[in-house]
Write a structure and sequence with these properties.
With 172 residues, this protein is α+β, with helices and mostly antiparallel strands. It folds into 2 domains: 98 residues, Orthogonal Bundle (Helix Hairpins); 52 residues, Roll (SH3 type barrels). Strands 4-3-2-1-5 form a 5-stranded antiparallel beta sheet. A hairpin with a 2-residue loop joins strand 1 and strand 2. The longest helix has 46 residues. The chain starts with a helix and ends in a 7-residue tail after the last strand.
Length: 172
């Protein structure tokens, strides 16, 4: 039995070695492509004068997508049946989408607010009875300052409701 293993060892190394080498090469190509795409997105975002959090989110999403595609491709090259893995990833994404749909809607609304810029810092806004001066806009929340009070408004609220933009004296 030991002699059979020793006789088959060069064949196994040749077959599995070439598959593993090809899988590692594919992983390296996808990793390199993800870095290049990330740099291209940062360059395009800077040129288009987009907000840094939006550009960073797009770059991270592109990089993770390419790396996951590279891992799935490499596993398929080695001989792993990736159909169940891809189906599992799809179901996981679907379940996570439902579980964190409010967070996702706030982030997407934040991206759109940062891209379209309907208002900016130091603008005075009113939405759904809440008002104040905008002190920060990020991916999840917009921060308003009203006197001594700080109000964190979810971005989805700002994106789906009418917003009044103006100074507090405009209300009179």
């Amino acid at each position: 039995m030991k002699e059979d293993i020793l006789e088959q060892f060069p064949i196994l190394v040749h077959v599995w070695g070439s598959k593993l080498l090809m899988a590692l090469l594919l992983l390296a190509i996808f990793w390199f492509a993800s870095r290049m795409v990330r740099q291209a997105i940062f360059a395009a975002g800077t040129k288009a004068d987009l907000e840094y959090p939006v550009v960073r989110l797009m770059a991270m999403a592109a990089r993770v997508t390419l790396l996951v595609a590279g891992i799935v491709t490499a596993l398929g090259t080695v001989g792993v049946d990736v159909s169940a893995l891809v189906a599992g990833l799809g179901l996981t994404g679907f379940a996570l989408g439902f579980a964190i749909k409010d967070t996702i809607s706030n982030i997407l609304a934040g991206v759109l607010l940062l891209v379209y810029r309907p208002f900016s810092k130091t603008d005075y806004v009113e939405v759904k009875g809440m008002e104040g001066e905008v002190t920060a806009i990020d991916l999840r929340y917009t921060t308003l300052q009203y006197g001594e009070q700080t109000i964190l408004l979810p971005n989805s609220l700002l994106f789906t409701n009418p917003i009044t933009i103006g100074k507090p004296t405009d209300k009179e």
